[in-house]
Amino acid sequence: MESINRPKLVKEHNLNLVRQQLYEARFATRQQLSALTGISNVTMGSLLNQMLETGEALETERLPSAGGRPAAVYSYNACRKYVLLLSVGFEKTEYRFRSVLTDLYGRPVWEEERPIAHLDHRETLDYLERLTHIRQPVGAVGIGLPGIGFGEYLRRGGHAEYLSLTALEEFQQASGIPIRVENDVNLAAMGYAKLHRIDKTVGLAYLYLMKGIYGGSAIFLDGKLHLGKGRFAGELLPVPYGVDWSRMKAEPAEALEDALFVSLLPYLTILAPHHVVIASDYIREEHLRQVERRLTDLLEAQNCPQFALAEDFRQDYQKGLEQLALEQLPFPIGTT
Fold it and tell me: 84 near 101, Cβ under 8 Å?
């Protein structure tokens, strides 16, 4: 049995602590990092020198001191790697590809939009090859796709794909860049939880109800998506409640509120989420408050979640996509 090199393990553990604290703080002196981690000042100096050598940290400035040598200020090098966020979404009048390259804090450094297309195997490879060479190195790729398109993409292949699934797998193997693909509403739930700092122990149901299209939802529990068998969790089918969200309208208000009531009731009685968030272009605050009152009367206030309308679905979607990509990078990136 191979022996364990404990000094090496201790050093790696300490290095990860420094990485995490500097990443979160963004800027810090050696003394500040020592206080945050409990690592001695001497050891901290050695660890920071190693991070400077590998390019993980940068020395940005020196602070004046009352006496002696000025203290160096270190920053986490967020541009040592980039992440590519590729999404399909509705932009003003049509669905479009949106590509964004960000640094390790999710700050965009480059972006473009182009009309939606169903790219074949060769076109997908060429597209990814171009995008991943705009800024280098790219450490991870996150891809977001709309609901029905995502299901077809996974289950049918060929004619229904926005991008070639086999090409994605081939590119990942050839380049070594990890790629993850996820549904847009699932990503929006992840992004909403991140943006609103929702605790990992808290449940969230995120519903997507837009004019003229099928309704969808995402379930975010214990800090992760609940996908269910066949990734079918959260599908809003017309049966058994008789609600066809693709035909729903804002008026008459009573019909819309009845539809919301019967659609939300299973979430509250089975999942019991702490938050219910609805992204919609026609459901208004007064509709939601009326349904909230009906549900509270039926189930009592202590059993009802906080209800809210999503302020910006695209922002939630993009934040979730960012998180999806960052989580593929080595600790501690994406875990904070």
Answer: yes
Give residue 261's identity as a one-letter amino acid code: F
CB 117 within 8 A of CB 126: no
Question: Helices 313-326 and 184-195 sit at what angle, rounded to 10 degrees?
Answer: 90
Residue 188 near residue 225, CB atoms below 8 Å: no
- Taking only the tens place, the pLDDT of each residue in 119-155 is 889 999 999 999 999 999 999 999 998 876 666 666 6
Number of residues that this document lists for the chain: 336
CA distance 60 to 166: 44
Three-class SS state of 128: helix
Kindly give the pairing relationship between strand 204-209 and strand 216-221. antiparallel
Cis peptide before 108, with omega less than 30 degrees from 0? no
Alpha-carbon distance 321 to 309, whole Å? Answer: 20
183: Cβ contacts below 8 Å, ≥ 6 apart: 144, 145, 146, 147, 150, 151, 216, 218, 231
> Residue 29: in which H helix or E strand, if any?
strand 27-29
Do residues 28 and 74 lie in contact, with contact meaning Cβ atoms separated by under 8 Å? yes
Most distant CA pair in the chain, distance: 76
| Cα–Cα distance for residue pair 304/296, rounded to 1 Å | 6
| CA 303 – CA 299 distance, rounded (Å) | 6
User: pLDDT (tens digit, 9 = 90+) per residue, 47-90?
Assistant: 999 999 999 999 987 766 555 567 889 999 999 999 999 998 87
For residue 45 the two structure tokens come to 């100096």
